[in-house]
Amino acid sequence: METSGQRAIHVPPSEGQMLWVVGELLTFKIGGQDADGAFVLAEEVTPPQGGPPPHLHTREDETFYVLEGELEFMVGERTLSARAGSVVYAPRGVLHGFRNVGTGHSRMALIVTPAGLEKFFEEVGEPVTDPSSPPEGPPDIERLVAVARKYGMEIPPPPA
């Protein structure tokens, strides 16, 4: 990957920092340091029935561009069906989440503005040694919730 100041950045298809986060494979293509803090671009691969718990950000907006699969997004009071080619925008301060409702893995481009949230993913994620082999066992939601607060995120408890 070529980076530095005002130079162009090129990240080949199989490169970028890869992390397992809540069962999802995140590959950071452009980090905040590469874009002078303006944004982060990541590829997000989610297994069937996977997805993060509903949450909100107080510092960042998130834009999801669905490349493959079928997802169901909850953004505020709305439930949205999103297939390949769909874009979903979740502004800061709005509760949102998604679930892969398809039978195969979904794949999205994730744009976070401004940068900074990648530090949360680095802290809670697990480095990837084999992208075809996710970590076993359920995610540590208590730890996720605790670390999220540090990065201006809120993860409310699931409804009873």
Task: Give your account of this protein's structure.
The chain has 160 residues and is mainly beta. It has one domain (17-150): Jelly Rolls (Sandwich). It is 11% helix and 39% strand. It is built from 2 helices and 12 strands. It has helices spanning 117-124, 141-150, and strands at 17-21, 24-30, 40-46, 56-57, 61-68, 70-75, 78-83, 87-90, 96-100, 106-113, 126-127, 153-154. The strands form 3 sheets. A 7-stranded antiparallel sheet has the order 8-5-10-3-2-1-11, covered by helices on one side. A 3-stranded antiparallel sheet has the order 7-6-9, with no helix packed on it.
Give descriptors for this structure.
160 residues; mainly beta; Jelly Rolls; 39% strand
- Dominant shape: globular
Oligomerization category of the chains in this entry: single chain
CATH superfamily: Jelly Rolls
Helix content: 10-25%
Query: Topology as H/E string?
Result: EEEEEEEEEEHEHE
Write down the CATH class: Mainly Beta
- Domain tally: 1
CATH fold category name: Jelly Rolls
Query: What structural category do the secondary elements indicate?
Result: mainly beta
C-alpha Rg (nearest Å): 15 Å
Note the main sheet.
7 strands, antiparallel
Mean pLDDT: 92
The main sheet orders its strands as 8-5-10-3-2-1-11
**N- and C-termini, Cα separation:** 46 Å
Per DSSP, the total helix count is: 2
Uncertain runs with pLDDT below 50, 5 residues or more?
Answer: none
